Amino acid sequence: MHGKLVNPDSEREILQERKGYLDQKLQLFADYFAPKTIGEFNGHYMMLTKLKGQFIWRKHDDTDDFFLVLLGTLEIELRDCIVTLGPGEMYIVPKGVEHHPVAREEVHVLLIEPSGTDVVRRRSRGSFIASEIRAPGGFGSNRQGLG
After folding, report:
1. pTM of the entire predicted model
2. H helix runs in 17-95, sequence order
3. Can you tell me the distance from the alpha carbon of 120 to that of 144, in angstroms, rounded to the nearest whole number?
4. Which of 12, 20, 74, 127 is a Cys-bridge partner for 139, taking CB atoms 3.0 to 4.6 Å apart?
5. Where in the chain are the domains?
6. In this structure, are residues 47 and 93 in contact, taking their beta carbons and an 8 Å threshold?
7. CA distance 31 to 60
């Protein structure tokens, strides 16, 4: 006999660990402009953050910047226009484009970034730190986070 026997119940448990609820994850923290890693897939980090106020003007020379608004209204100021996003709307800032996120009220956002690139660069500048905290449940990340 080739292959291995798998217990269907344990396989189901493993798959269930990959499930998570964004609203529950967002209740685990209150700080602004401090993304929390909730999972990793295909070399990308999925992060949740809360925003309120203005963030610094910035650009990323080698990666795009992905924003998906979950709650509230986010304005992404570009040098020549303003992109306004509401719940369920997303925007990808192309690499090399200066942008300035502004949240007049609290906004909840899902960010997706390549692992080991932007997060590392931001940590070294000290301006935007993606932290990791552990919580029940998870999204199947190989990296501990808001799991």
Report:
1. 0.72
2. 22-26
3. 16
4. 20
5. 18-125
6. no
7. 23
Joined together, the tokens standing for residue 78 give 């570009």
Tell me the pLDDT of the chain (147 aa) as tens digits.
455 555 666 666 555 556 678 988 999 999 999 999 988 889 999 999 999 999 999 998 989 999 999 999 999 999 999 999 999 999 999 999 999 999 999 999 999 988 876 443 443 333 334 444 444 444 444 343 554
Q: Which residue, chain included where needed, has tokens 């080739």?
A: 2
In this structure, what token pair is assigned to residue 126? Answer: 């000290």
CATH number of 18-125: 2.60.120.10
Q: Are 140 and 18 in contact (CB under 8 A)?
A: yes
Both structure tokens of 72: 């509230």
What are the tokens at 94?
A: 């192309």
